[in-house]
Amino acid sequence: MNEVDKKFENFIRAIRDTDLKKEIRTIPEVYGIQYKEVYITKWITYLLKTKAFGIDILNLLLSINRSDVKIGTIKKVHAEYVFDTKRRIDILIFTDKYLIGIENKIWSGEQENQTSDYKACMETIKAKTKGIEDCIGIFLHPEQNSTNSDHFDNVTYTQLYNQLKKIKSCECSDSFKKMMFEQFTMYVKEYLYMNNGEFPEISDNVKLYAQYINIISAISDDYKSTSLRIIEWLKYKFKNSQYEILEAGNGYMQIVPRGCKEKWEAIGFHLEILWSRDFMINGEIEIEAHLEKTKGDNVQQIFHKFDVANVEYRGHDKPLVKGNSVSCNFETETKAEDTFKQILNEMERLRKEHEDWETIL
How many Å apart are CA 14 and CA 23, to the nearest integer? Predict the structure, then answer.
């Protein structure tokens, strides 16, 4: 056993002796989306739309910078609203007198001229909408994130949390809406809240990570290097089989039968091999049939022949047919060869099951 392996074994032993059983408390923790802005934005939108909390959340949010503004009625709440300029704001709210835009930034910063463009677009809508007296922009971000806006009111999640505590969720009769509000408040406190003057505890986990950070980094680099070499090996195997590669990228390969490349590419048809970053040992490789980037005047005819209902671009997330997953293991050359045979067998099974594809092609 080499020195790296010994150190890593010590690290694993230390982890086992450390209390890592942190109780999962919030919805984002379950799905690993604590810092995914798009999901958190949709959550805020949902809460703003609820009759139980929406108007209270909005008024408290506004009161941080505008104590003179009080919203009477929320008419519409839009998530990912697209202006005529094609700019997309996270949340746009139509109220009785105000048009309110919210841009949610968790760890990213403002794009060039982002909020100034939003403000101009909102003013254009205001000019066309009867009853709207003013436009208000809110730039929402954690206090830890130093980004801010010169055109929107800057509001931190710390300020938002302090306001959310004023809302009494126990008065809500809908148990699901109550749960969603309480979960959101807890999530903000755990992940986006910073209490100035409160010194953060350096936990045993942090100390353990600091002690072994170099070995973790070295092992991670080794894993990435090995996985890249395995992908190159798979490419080599395909090049020496009855198939050839049409295109390859991060996590996928587009495969066509040898000698059919030009015809299949013209129609936009291919078999696709997909893998995740943990595919190497006891992982899975997905095999799918795809029809995409179809060109020419015969697009509708081709889609009709393949029995595709909607004549639209079908990207990587819209396969024509999904095949069976192949369990893979590349620990040894023998296991790797067996894995590749399983991939070929599944591709052949998929082609045989849909022989009409090749008749069309």
Answer: 20
